[in-house]
Specification:
The chain is built from 7 helices and 7 strands, in the order H-H-E-H-E-H-E-E-E-H-H-E-H-E. The chain has 171 residues and is of the alpha+beta class. The protein has 2 domains: 40 residues, no CATH class; 118 residues, no CATH class. It has a 3-stranded mixed beta sheet. It has a two-stranded antiparallel ribbon with strand order 3-4. Strands 5-7 form a two-stranded antiparallel sheet. A hairpin with a 7-residue loop joins strand 3 and strand 4. The termini are far apart. The relative contact order is 0.17.
Length: 171
C-alpha cells in the first residue's frame, strides 16, 4: 500500500474503500518505531531532490475572488482558510499535457508534433517571496530541495501553475 491522504491511498491489487487507515497507522505506531508523519511523501532520492523541485500543492475550495491580490496571495501561502483537497487526476493530467501541432489534419497522414513537453509551468522565480523559497538554492544542483508540505499547508495548484499559451510564453 502507498499511503497518501486519508481515502486516497493506493492498494496494490485493487482499491479498498472499506479500510480504516487511521486504525492501521495506530496499530503500526503502537507496535513499531514507524510514524505516519514519516510516510506521507514518496521517498525521493538525493539526486531527485537536487535535479527536480519537489513541491506539493492542492485544490482550494475558494470562498473569495482570486482577482483580489491579498486573497490570491493568501491561497499561495495557505493562510486563506479555504477547504483543501488533493488535486484530481483530471487536473494533474491537464497540467502534465504537452503542447503540440496537428499536421495534415483530417487526412490519413495526420500526426501530432510535440513542440513543448508541458503546457503548464510553475514560475517559482516569481513566487519566491510568497512561498519563502530561495531561487539560488533551487537552481544549485549541489543543494537538495524538498518543498512538500502537509495537505492543510499546501498552496493552491491553480495559482501555482501557469498556462504557457495563455500567458504568452509560447505561441
Amino acid at each position: 500500500m502507498i499511503f497518501r491522504s486519508n481515502g486516497l491511498e493506493y492498494w496494490y491489487g485493487k482499491s479498498r474503500g472499506d479500510i480504516d487507515v487511521d486504525a492501521i497507522w495506530n496499530d503500526i505506531e503502537t507496535h513499531t518505531d514507524f510514524l505516519q508523519s514519516d510516510h506521507i511523501h514518496f521517498p525521493l532520492s538525493d539526486i531527485e531532490k537536487r535535479k527536480f523541485l519537489p513541491m506539493s500543492c492542492c485544490t482550494h475550495g475558494h470562498s473569495h475572488d482570486h482577482t483580489d491580490l491579498p486573497a490570491h496571495n493568501a491561497c499561495l501561502d495557505c493562510t486563506c482558510g479555504c477547504d483543501t483537497s488533493e488535486c484530481s487526476n483530471d487536473f494533474i493530467s491537464e497540467r502534465l499535457s504537452p503542447i503540440f501541432i496537428v499536421h495534415d489534419e483530417g487526412s490519413d497522414e495526420e500526426y501530432n508534433e510535440i513542440t513543448h513537453k508541458r503546457k503548464y509551468q510553475v514560475p517559482y522565480w516569481d513566487l519566491a517571496s510568497i512561498l519563502s523559497i530561495d531561487v539560488d538554492n533551487i537552481r544549485n544542483t549541489n543543494k537538495e530541495v524538498d518543498l512538500r508540505k502537509p495537505l492543510q499547508e499546501r498552496s493552491a495548484a491553480d495559482l501555482l501553475t501557469v498556462d504557457k499559451i495563455a500567458a504568452g510564453v509560447v505561441s
